[in-house]
Amino acid sequence: METLGGAEFAPTSTYLNTSSCGLLPRRSVEAVRKLAQEIADGRPEGSGSSESVEAARASFARLVGVSADRVATGGSVAVHVGLIAASLPAGAEVVVPEGEFSSMVTPFTTRGDLKVRYAPLDGIAGAVGPGTTLVALSAVQSADGRIADLSAVRASAAAHGARVLLDASQAAGWLPVDAGAYDYTVTAAFKYLLCPRGASFLTVTEAAQESLVPAHAGLFAAEDPSGSTYGPVEEFARSARRYDEPPSFLAYHAAEQSLPLLEKIGVDAVHAHNTALAARFRAGLVELGHSPVPGDSGIVAVPGLGERQPRLARAGVVVSARAGNLRASFHLYNSEADVDRALDVLSG
Predict the structure, then answer these.
(1) Interatomic CA distance for residues 222 and 242, integer angstroms
(2) Per-residue confidence at 46, pLDDT binned at 50, 70, 90?
(3) In the predicted model, what is the mean pLDDT of the chain?
(4) pLDDT at position 75, please?
(5) Given pLDDT bands bounded at 50, 70 and 90, which one contains residue 175?
(6) What is the Cα 89 distance to its own chain's centre?
């Protein structure tokens, strides 16, 4: 099986670590280089282009199946989640999976006046009750690649009048995501969306926007940014742009290039590619006597094998150690040769 990325990528290692950080396409590297040089030269256009931010917003919206007016741009998932946490009434119950990524949990626990309740990932739907205000979970777990039963969670939340916050950071770009099915989604774009750190997206339904206050708003959240430089913003954007953070232009100039590449290839094609490589790796692990976490995720975790990560690194195979697991994550720039190389090193 060949890669899907073609000449856009040139890793110098066997890189199986997209769940930590995705590789930048050549076109995105060039966009960053160009803007950085403009800033260094002192050119008038050197600060960065809002048009690049809007292009990235529109491309992300198409990838997750919503209109661009439902998408806010920012710099990190933690800030997006913090905005949502700040909007909840005192005493609200938030249900999250055990072992969920800290950015999805800490903004709620630091409030001090919310009830945060934990449940096993496969029991999240059953943990939602009449007192639940929000269910917050990742589509794909960072530690072990497990995919949540999202249809069950949505059904349970709807039955009890709760809202759902979905973190798509480990999913968007390889697993089809319908952001319109959730009240909120948050996505760090520096993983499977192939962008630099500093590009992150929040989607909000129109109903959820009624209770979400643009607490960190600046001029970029205004309906008329150019006329909102000084003094308080008089009118916020009529779309989810009211929740925009000031953009990291270097990141968004790259995102403007990376996201259309994924659109062109297609998430379905990437999904088929990634999961086929992951299945090959699981089968090889079993032959070596290991027991990977079962499933059909594009992320493979092997409990208790995390200590092998340094040995793999010395052999030029980049993976992660997470919660005691050895974690390998596959993407469009990987091939069967990468899988076989990792298995060779693990075989000793």
Answers:
(1) 6
(2) low
(3) 96
(4) 96
(5) very high
(6) 27
Q: Which two tokens stand for residue 110?
A: 């630091």
* 241 burial level (CB within 10 Å; 0-12, 13-18, 19+): buried
Chain centroid to CA 330: 15
Q: How many residues are there in the chain?
A: 348
What phi and psi values does residue 185 have, to the nearest 5 degrees? -130, 150
Residues paired with residue 118 on neighbouring β-strands, in sequence order = 96
- Residue-level pLDDT at 216: 86
Tokens matching residue 139? 């589509």
Give 89-114 pLDDT, tens digit per residue: 999 999 999 999 999 999 999 999 99
> Which residues, in sequence order, are CB contacts of 158 under 8 Å at separation 6+?
none
Ranges of beta strands (E only) in the chain are 14-15, 71-74, 93-97, 115-119, 132-138, 163-167, 184-188, 200-204, 299-303, 317-318, 320-322, 325-329
Looking at domain 32-264, its CATH architecture is 3-Layer(aba) Sandwich (3.40)
For the structural domain made of 6-24+266-347, what CATH number should be given? 3.90.1150.10
Beta-sheet strands, E only, within 127-188: 132-138, 163-167, 184-188
Is this structure's pTM higher than 0.85?
A: yes
Report domain extents, the chain.
Answer: 6-24+266-347, 32-264
Q: What is the pLDDT of residue 64?
A: 98
The Cα 217–Cα 74 span in angstroms is 11
- For 146, 217, 255, the CA distances from 221, given in Å and listed in that order, are 36, 6, 20
Q: Give the C-alpha separation, 129 to 167, whole Å.
A: 21
Separation of alpha carbons 67 and 59, rounded Å: 10
